């Protein structure tokens, strides 16, 4: 009987260590989603998209607390503490299932949201660094190596392009390897040829998948 208790205690201790590690990973994933979303929030107006990330951070924090409860219960061999530990783990499992469902729901909405908002963002571009919309577009075009909504010609219909009257696109459209690019449309070979809309959609869907996979992975561990 003593050997059985020792074995159970060892197994539970290993699980608690895994639990603490999972708590850290879940919090990291949630924080990563928040930080990355901040760079793309102009292209996605539905703030409720962050709900899965909020939940997963809350779950990670809760798991850390649960780990401490489990450690105390194991040390004291408290049946009540262990029962509470199991019940809370069950609630966490249900929450993770909810995160997965919400993640898939919001992932499916990404394309429609970006399609609805991206034209507005490009129309607000004024080329000045302090302007939030301008910074967002320049960041996305450099980071994703794209230009315009569908291609660089989309810039011709923007207010900024018509006001500048210099037949050029922002320098963020220039290929990174070129140092003498001026953004002129007379040299389209110097510009990124791919549009940003499809790449923004892909990036946001990838971000949401991180949350889904993190929740699924830990749910599988619990099972």
From TrEMBL:
GO terms for cellular component: plasma membrane. Keywords: Glycoprotein, Membrane, Transmembrane, Transmembrane helix. It is a multi-pass membrane protein. It is found in: Membrane. The chain crosses the membrane at residues 12-35, 47-70, 82-106. InterPro entries: Tetraspanin/Peripherin, Tetraspanin_animals, Tetraspanin_CS, Tetraspanin_EC2_sf. Belongs to the tetraspanin (TM4SF) family. Regulates the proliferation and migration of oligodendrocytes, a process essential for normal myelination and repair. Interacts with claudin-11/CLDN11 and integrins. This is Tetraspanin. The gene is Tspan3_0.
């Amino acid at each position: 009987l003593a050997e059985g208790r020792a074995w159970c205690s060892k197994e539970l201790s290993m699980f608690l260590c895994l639990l603490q590690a999972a708590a850290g990973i879940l919090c990291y994933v949630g924080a990563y989603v928040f930080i990355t979303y901040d760079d793309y929030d102009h292209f996605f107006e539905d703030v409720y998209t962050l709900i899965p990330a909020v939940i997963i951070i809350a779950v990670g924090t809760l798991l850390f607390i649960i780990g401490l409860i489990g450690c105390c219960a194991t040390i004291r061999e408290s049946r009540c503490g262990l029962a509470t530990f199991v019940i809370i783990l069950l609630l966490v499992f249900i929450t993770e299932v909810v995160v997965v469902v919400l993640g898939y729901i919001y992932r499916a909405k990404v394309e429609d949201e970006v399609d609805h908002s991206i034209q507005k963002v490009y129309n607000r571009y004024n080329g000045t660094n302090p302007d939030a919309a301008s910074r967002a577009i320049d960041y996305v075009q450099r980071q994703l190596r794209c230009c315009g909504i569908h291609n660089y010609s989309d810039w011709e219909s923007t207010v900024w392009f018509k006001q500048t009257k210099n037949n050029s696109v922002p320098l963020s459209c220039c290929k990174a390897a070129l140092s003498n690019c001026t953004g002129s449309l007379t040299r389209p070979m110097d510009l990124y040829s791919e549009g940003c809309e499809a790449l923004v959609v892909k990036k946001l869907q990838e971000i949401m998948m991180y949350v889904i996979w993190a929740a699924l992975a830990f749910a599988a561990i619990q099972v």
